[in-house]
Design brief:
The chain is mainly α. The protein is built from one helix and no strands.
Length: 47
């Protein structure tokens, strides 16, 4: 039974890591868009 629990923990560790990478990539894209939008608004106001 201990080996099954160890495999389960290892599997959850891998899945959690993949989820963290995917969520992190989306957060980076979101911050990139947030940085781009203020510049676009400033350009529109200048025109």
């Amino acid at each position: 039974m201990a080996s099954i629990k160890d495999v389960g923990k290892f599997f959850l560790f891998i899945v959690g890591g993949l989820v963290a990478i995917i969520v992190g990539s989306f957060m980076i894209r979101g911050t990139m868009h947030m940085w781009d939008n203020p510049d676009d608004v400033k350009d529109e106001k200048k025109d």
